[in-house]
Design goal:
single chain; alpha/beta; Rossmann fold; DNA polymerase, domain 1; 2 domains; seven-stranded mixed sheet; 12 helices; 7 strands; 40% helix; 14% strand; binds S-adenosylmethionine
Length: 298
């Protein structure tokens, strides 16, 4: 089975505005679809890629200009500093999970397979979805479902989980599905469950704090004029990217200096997010929710 089909490939490469001698970072290597296209455009330049899923190593590219780092992209700043690399000419992030991860029957990302509730991108460390479901207090579970899944009835769901786990540990995908069956709508069952799973996945992998860290670090390691290209797959991510680019921070207010001048780090290249066209969506369903933002370091 194909590891992953890259989304918005041409648009992302164009957005990066690659120079042949530049240093680029692809922070979400996955199947390497975007990385391969970046490498084609480099002569003396180099590409560093990150992926915290050890499975991605099977796609690594043997080329002098390329290096794959199997760490969280939260570590990008430290890693570049330790290796004395920078400033950077462009950063690409194609967020979320790969087709390989969702299609793997034993990783717990999909509602289709009755596997252990794992959902970790990096299976070497951290809490699994099973740990979260069986260990987190009611209010924290409810917050995860409400905030990350944008689900109504989040407290009811949390209470059902707490009651069920007192009797038996919730270990498998089907255990979770049956625990919340009474509040799962008959019409739109898959959509509802997909949101529950999305919420858990975001919590397990601490995805939003990784993105915040990435945005801040990118501002620090990139050259003036360098491009940041981010493809996101849900509104929580897209909102963070939009805010950071347009306001210089994550609050609703624009960051300003003491004289009231905006303190922006990036300027947006596309005011509206770029989305896949009908032809790409027909070929690759994953592309349907993709939103790409391009920003330039000021
Ligand atoms: C959508 S896929 C990227 C696909 C890739 N662009 C391609 O063309 O094949 C996202 C990848 O990023 C990785 N990933 C997500 N969050 C990460 C993080 N915080 N640190 C490192 N890797 C991460 C996932 O493991 C996954 O392999």
């Amino acid at each position: 089975m194909k590891y992953h089909d890259p989304v918005l490939l041409d648009q992302a490469i164009e957005g990066l505005n690659i120079t042949a001698d530049g240093t680029y970072v692809d922070v979400t290597f996955g199947g390497g679809g975007h990385s391969k296209e970046i490498l084609k455009r480099l002569k003396t330049g180099r590409l560093i890629a990150f992926d915290k899923d050890a499975d991605a190593v099977e796609n690594s590219i043997t080329q002098d200009q390329f290096q794959l780092v199997t760490q969280d992209f939260k570590e990008m700043g430290n890693w570049l500093e330790e290796n004395d690399i920078g400033p950077i000419d462009g950063v690409l992030a194609d967020l979320g999970i790969s087709s390989h991860q969702i299609d793997s029957p034993d990783r717990g990302f999909s509602i289709r397979y009755n596997s252990d509730l794992d959902m970790r991108m990096d299976t070497r460390e951290g809490l699994s979805a099973m740990d979260v479901i069986n260990g987190f207090p009611e209010n924290e579970l409810a917050r995860i479902f409400a905030e990350y899944g944008e689900l109504r009835g989040s407290y009811k769901m949390a209470r059902l989980i707490i009651a069920a786990r007192k009797i038996n540990k919730i270990e498998k995908v089907d255990d979770l599905k049956s625990t919340i069956k009474s509040i799962t709508p008959k019409a739109g069952e898959n959509k509802f469950l997909a949101k529950v799973f999305q919420a858990l996945r975001i919590a397990v992998n601490d995805e939003l704090s990784a993105l915040r860290q990435l945005l801040q670090t990118s501002g620090e390691v990139m050259k003036s004029g360098a491009r940041l290209v981010i493809i996101s797959y849900h509104s929580l991510e897209d909102r963070l990217v939009k805010r950071y680019v347009e306001r210089g921070g994550f609050d609703s207010e624009m960051v300003k200096d003491i004289y009231g001048n905006p303190q922006l780090i990036f300027k947006s290249i596309n005011k509206k997010p770029i989305m896949a066209d009908a032809e790409e969506v027909a070929r690759n369903r994953r592309a349907r929710s993709a939103k790409m933002r391009i920003a330039e370091k000021i």
